[in-house]
Structures are given as C-alpha cells and as structure tokens.
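Weekly structure sync, notes
Attendees: PL, DS, HV (note-taker this week)

Item 1: Transport permease protein
DS walked through the input record. Source organism listed as Mesoterricola silvestris. Sequence as pasted into the shared doc:
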Amino acid sequence: MPLLRQFLMEWKLYGRDRVALFWTFAFPILMLVGFGTIFRSGSGPSLTLVVAGPASPELLAALAKTPVKPLSMTPAEAQARWKKGDTAAQLQEGRLRVNTYLAAQGQMTAQIVQQANLAVQMGQAGVAPRFLPVAMESPGSAHLSNYAAFLLPGLLGMNLLSMGLFSVGMVNVSYREKGKFRRLAVTPLPKWVFLGGQVLHRLTVTFLQAAAMLLVGHFGFHITNQGSYLLLVLVLGLGCACFMSMGFALSGFAKTSEGYAAISNAFFFPMMFLSGVYFTLDSAPRWMQQAVIALPLSPYLKALRAVFNDGATLAGHGAGLAIVAAWTAGCFLVAVKKFSWA
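Item 1 (cont.): predicted structure, written out as tokens:
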C-alpha cells in the first residue's frame, strides 16, 4: 500500500535525526521532571523570612502555623546574605525589607508576616483571631497542589505547537528549498500519499510523545488523567490538526528556512509565553488576558486541563474549542491555497 510505505519512510527519515528525537521526546520529559521536582511540594518556591536579631516569640509562634519559615541570624549575617541577593524578605527591629529582585516571593512572605503580626496584636488585646479555611482546588474542584499537574497539559499543548510549526512547517520549507518537492513532482508518487504519510507520521509521534509524558507523570508525580481517555484523545487530535495546519499554512509564505524561522517564531513565542503553558496570566493587564484568548493555544490548554485535571466534559468550552476549530479551518484553507511543489 503506497500510503503505508510512505508512512514507514517518514519514520525512517525521522529516526535518523537524533536531534529531532531528543527535542520531541526527551526535552519535554526533562522539562516536566525538572520543574515538577523543583516545585514538587506546591505551586511555587518556598517562603523564607530572614529574622535579623531578636524577634517577638509570639510572632515566631504565629509564623509556625504558616508556610513561612523563619531563619534566625545575627544582623551582620543577615546583612551579608542580603548583599548576596539571597534574601527575599527580612525582618529586623520590627521592620520588613523586601528584595525588589525577588518581589514575588518577598511580597507574599511580607503579607503573611503582616497577617501573623495582626493576629498577635489581636491576641494581646484579648480578641481571638478567626481565619477563613483555605482549600487548594482547581476549577473542577480537584485537590491538586503539585505544580507538575498544571505543567503536564501545558507541555502537551506546547509539544503540539512545536510539532506543527517546526517538524511540519520547517521540514516542508526545507524540502522546497532543496528542490525535493520538484523531484517528487515528476515521480509516480501521488501528492495525497506524500502529504498523508506526513500527517500519519506526526499523529503517531504526537500520541507516542503524549503517552511517554503521561507515564512519567504517573510514576514520577502520581498524576493521572481524571477524565475520559476518549475525550483526551479527541482533544489531542484537535490540537494536532490545528497546529499541523498552521505549520503547513505558514510554510507557504517562506522560500527559505531562515525566512520561515522568523515567521514561525512570530507565532511560537507569543503563544508559548502568553497562553498559560508554564504559568497563568492572572497578574497581567486585563486587556492582555482577553486578547490572548484569540490565540488557539490559550483556549486549547483550558479545555485540555479541564479534561485531564478536572475530569470535566467539553460542555463549558464550546467557545474556546470553536476558536481552535476556526484556526484549524482557516489555516487548512490557506495551506491548500499556498501549497505548491515549486
């Protein structure tokens, strides 16, 4: 069967490229293991408060009930640590100092210290403070405190984006640039067989890559798919179709690999940093949070995380998936119009 032979040929060519194999399979797993290990106990770095000199025993006792870990030092030791840039927040003589270079950790630590100090003052005034209970939950009420649970679907989505833009788009531009398309055009090989072999190859790479990451997530971080595996496969298939279509479409606008690199990076980097792969945009301006929804990766990751982390259906993600489907259809039409063997 011509399609099967072309499919196997694509795998042989792909298997010879060790660099591509590394970036496709090993690099995402290394990212998951690295970040998942660093933030294994939660969704962010540990909070340490350097206490320079004597401090209120009542305040230290109150901090023992919080995520903040006091680190007692002499004023000279604390100042030396501060100058090295290793201190996010420091308490000395009733005054808090926050490192501007570590503002995220320092401000969070300072807020907790302020709350503990207020609780101590209320206790001294004879008023027992009452704190509201806090539960760490995802939007689907799943109690997942491990950052790796948030990261894994993000990496799955980013891998699909990389596959479409670089493994599909860049390869086709390279084929055209080196004249391979012109040589294929005069062979008996039908166009649909050539393109079909590429599509089937990328689909199998996508699902093998996803399976490898799911296994690492399961055995390394006890992360499992909370939803329907059928829905998970359907969402992965939609993402593969969308970003492969984008790669084919963008490849029609470039004659050289250098030109395609500039075009593809103009799409890749905004989506990688603004779509919620590694972190959310809750601290970004409101207009940016709304604008990024127009990019396909952002609504796609919301749907993927809903299925994987929360066991949800796709009922509440119709608008987002419609955006992804619109990108898929639009890119496919552009790819068909722009594709040529020349």
